[in-house]
Amino acid sequence: MTYVPRNLLRTKPSYLLVNPGAPVRAAGTWREVADGIQWIAGKGAQLVPSFSTNFQVAAGVTKTLRFRVRPRGKAIRRVWGLLLQANTFSVGTSVTIRAPAVTGTAVTTDIGFRALFWQPFQYIEDLTAKSSTEQEISIDIAATGGTANVLGIGCYEEDRSALNDDATDYGIRVETVVPRAPMIDVAQTSLRGVYDAFANMDARRVGIFHIALDTGEAFSRLSATLQSITDLPPKIQVGKLNSGATTAQCYWSCYARMATSGGTGGSVKLSTSLSGVSDTATITGTTFAWITSRAITVSADNFASVDGFRNDELTIEIAGDGTRVVEVASVSIWVDSVA
Amino acid sequence: MSGSSELECRVRHTASDVFNAPYRPVGDKATRWILVNNTNHYADIHGQVRANYVSRSIGPVKESYYFTNSTSWKNVLTTAPFPIALREDGSSYRVRVIVGGATENLLAAANFSVVLSRFGAPTDPLTTIENAISGLIPTDSVWTTTSNVNSTTPVYATGKSQGTIGWDRMIALTADEAAPFITVTGTPIDIGGAASGVPQCLVQLFVFAETSSALYSARLHAFQATEWYGNP
User: Which value does ipTM take for this structure?
Assistant: First the structure.
C-alpha cells in the first residue's frame, strides 16, 4: 500500500491558465487540482456541530445521546468534544465516556474541582471500517462520585494524514502529475488518477443541526398544539450547488416514540422562514426509533454576499395527540449529497 | 462575490463522458469547468458548521442558556478544539458567527463578543478581546456586539469584527495569527494502521458576555459558527 500525504493548506487552481488551444500545465493546473482534491478528500467533516446540552448526570447514572448522520467515506477516526462541569465542588467526581454507546472504549476524566468552570474534553473514537452510509452515531456519558453537568457536545472526523492510493481513498500519486510526465491510464496515477479522485471525493458540509437528549428526559408534549423546542430558531443554510440556486437539499430525522399506544400519533414539524419549508412527520410507534430520513429544501450559500449568509431560520415543533405524549430524544439534520 | 471558483456553482458532469477514456484529448472545457471550477467550488462549500448552539424552550429542568452577572467580559461558552480549514494563503477560512442573547431584566443591557483562539495561545482570549475592542491591537479574529442586547426575550445580536476589515458577522485568523495554532496531531495512517501525524490548525471559539448591572444576568441563547471561504 502506498500512502499519499495531503497538504495543510487548500489550493486554488486558476481557471485563467486553462484556455482553448493552450496547453494545460502540469505544475499550474494538474498538480494544483490534484492537491485540492486530496485536501478536500482528507479533511474531516463536522458530523455533529457543537450544540447546547446542559443536562445533568447523577452519580451512578449513564445517559446516551444519539445522532443521525451520513459520514464521508474516508474518515478513520471521530473526535468527540464535550464541555463538562462538576455540579458542586466534589473530590472524586468523574465522568466516563464511551462512543459508540455501550461498546466504545471507556475513558474517564476527573472534573471534581471544576464547579465554577467547565472542562473541554476530547474523546477519540477509532473506527473499524470506513463508511459513508446513513447511520446512527452515539455516545454514553456516566458520572461517578458526584453529579456532572454536560454543557455541550460535538463530533468531527479527524483529518487524514495521508490517503491510500486505492479505490476507497483515491489518493493521487502526485509525483505523476508533474511537468513532462506522461499522461497514462493507470489507477491513482496521472490524469486518470485526478479524474477518478475528483469523481469519488465528498465535499459535503455534513452536520447542519443536531439537538439530543437521553431518552429518559426527552422533549415531551401531550398537547396536540405544536410547540417549539428551542428558544430561538437556529439559522439554517447548506452549500450551494447549481447556478442561480438559492436553495439546496438536506435530510432530517428524529429519534422519537409515543409514550402509550393508540390514537392518531404525535407530530414533529420542521419549518423554515426564508425557504418556506414545512415538513411534518407523524410518530406512532411506542419504541424509540429513528424515522425514515426525510428530504427538505432549505437556503443555500449566497455567493453574492461577502459572508455568504442568508437569513433562513428553522423552527422545530412537537405535539402529542391530546391524550398521548410524544417523546423526542433527538433531531438531526445533515447534507446527504453534493453530487 | 465571495467564492474562489470561476462560476460560483457546481458544473454537472457525467464521469463516463469525460473520465477514464484512453486516447481522448484533454479538453479545455472539461479541465476548466469540471476540474478547476468544481474543485474550487467544492473546497468553498466544504466549510463545516462547527457549532450550532441554541437553548431549549422545554426539556430537562436545568436552564439551557449560558449566563453571567459579570459587568466585565466573562467567558460563558467555549467550544472544544477543532481543525479549522486553512486557505491557500495560510489564513483561516472565515467563521460566520451568529449570536443570540437576552438580558434577565430590562434594567440591564447585555453585550457579547467572540474570539477565535485557543487555550494556551500566546495572548489569552480575554486579553485579545480587550486589546481588540480598545483598539490597541485591531484584529478580525474578534467579533463584538455593536448595540446592546436589551430584551428579555432572546434575540439575534448585531456586531462587527474588530480589525481593519470589520465584517458584520465573520471572524478569521490571518496567516500570522493562525501560525501559532498549527500543530501536529497523532493519528493512524489508516484503519488500524501505523501511527502518523497530521498537521492541523487547532482552534477554539470563546464566547464572552457582560451585563451593565451585576443584579441581572446576560444570557447567551444561541451561537452558530460556520466556516466560509470568503473573499477577502
Answer: 0.95
